Amino acid sequence: MDLKTLVTWTLTCDLNLPDATWYVDGVEHASGETIDLVEGSYGITFLEVEGYITPSSRTITLTDDTTIHVDYFESAKAEEATYAFVNLVGGATATSYPVFYTNTPPSVSRDACRTTELWLRRIPAGTFTMGSPEDELGRYAYEDETQHSVTLTQDFFIGVFEVTQRQWELVMGDRPSYFKNDDYYATRPVESVSYKDIRGSSSTRGAGWPAYGHTVNADSFMGRLQARTGLVFDLPTEAQWEYACRKRAYGTCWETALNSGKDLTASSGACPNMDKVGRYYHNGGSNDSETCDTSGGTAKVGSYLPSELGLYDMHGNVEEWCLDWYGNYAFGDQIDPVGPTSGPSGTYRLRRGGSWYDGARSCRAAYRESSGPSDSSRYSGFRLVLLPGE
Questions:
Q1: What is the pLDDT of residues 364-390, one digit of tens each?
Q2: What gap in Å lies between CA 352 and CA 261, rounded to an integer?
Q3: Three-state secondary structure call for residue 241
Q4: Which residues contact 49 (CB under 8 A, 6 or more apart)?
């Protein structure tokens, strides 16, 4: 007899709804109940509870005593919801991904919201001051950060986190990032991906913003996500990115360098205010070993303080691609700006937020960086937007 077949382990499933139940191969169990199972793989499903989003079924392979934590989220109508999330459990071969809406924020203490679920937060339409004052510490005289009024007329959802390596892997089926330590990769932001990897390279599709709108190439990340959800996911415009970064919980927007309401304390070297809101060179970014843990290089997304709206890592970690060509700001007040019709010689796309390897000045809310759309450096990643009215 093969003695391995007699090895048993315990399985416990904790649910955040006390009256909800879970099923192993069709047998019902209460929340928090511990059962003994022979080593092997088991299908787990969950009770449907009216008014709540039923957690996705999953397969657990038992090779040790295991406890899993599973959350139910109260459901909401799409047009009224504060949050949306995409279930990526089906992976790169799935033909569709379910999309859910709720007013309950993600459980940031658990990593599902960083790996198998893509969470986004609604940003209400509004007006804000884009750019920085000329005397902001860290701004150089030659940088075009001229302050001007911008009005965004439509709500949009934006990623609570930067897209992670595991989320990219579940959509695209590969792992392109420089930071590749298997123990930590899943919850780190994906990097080493270009604008063209994200949207595609056709001049009339993925590379065609703004003339061709949110049309993308089918084999790009956005192409696959759009096809599998039936919704318009894309990169944010530069204005959407900065508005989301600055937006406060009760209607106003910060005009400070950081979305904590603080300015920098120094234009170079360590900055205590930046230390609190994101990964940059002086709080771990100086270690650029590709096999380092998350104390160096990129941090696990959501490791630092969020904005008042619950957005993480808007400062540092990875520079985030935006839709726009790079160019000087248009003169005067703007409504729903989409950036220049082309960049200088059609060359550079915008990135925002600074990276793990940058100083604090490059992580300011108004700071503008640019790069060629084929650039796939280890400093660059992205954050999603969902456009519910498109």
A1: 999 999 999 999 999 999 999 999 877
A2: 18
A3: helix
A4: 17, 19, 20, 72
Quickly count: other Cβ atoms within 10 Å of residue 346's Cβ: 12
Cα–Cα distance, 336 to 320 (Å, whole number): 20
Q: CA 6, CA 2: separation in Å to the nearest integer?
A: 8
pLDDT tens profile 87-108: 999 999 999 999 999 999 999 9
For the record, the structure tokens of 372 come out as: 């060629």
Which pLDDT belongs to residue 5?
54
> What does the pLDDT read at residue 222?
98
What's the CA angle centered on 337, arms 333 and 338, to 5 degrees? 155
**What separation in angstroms does the CA of 73 have from each of 68, 84, 102, 163, 387?**
16, 11, 7, 21, 22
Number of neighbours of residue 73 by Cβ within 10 angstroms? 21
Tokens of 52: 């709540």
What is residue 161's three-state secondary structure?
coil
3-state SS of 242-301 is HHHHHECCCCCECCCCCCCCCCCCCCCCCCHHHHHHCCCHHHCCCCCCCCCCCCCCCCCC
What is the b/e burial string over 136-153, where b = at least 16 CB atoms within 10 angstroms of the residue's CB? bbbbeeebebeeeebebe
> Tokens representing 130?
């884009």
Spatial distance between the Cα atoms of 227 and 230, rounded to a whole number of angstroms: 5
Q: Which helix (H) or strand (E) holds 172?
A: helix 165-172
The string of pLDDT tens digits covering residues 173-202 is 999 999 999 999 999 999 999 999 999 999
Strands 83-87, 117-123: pairing kind: antiparallel
Render pLDDT for 320-350 as a digit per residue (tens, 0 to 9). Answer: 999 999 999 988 999 999 999 877 656 899 9
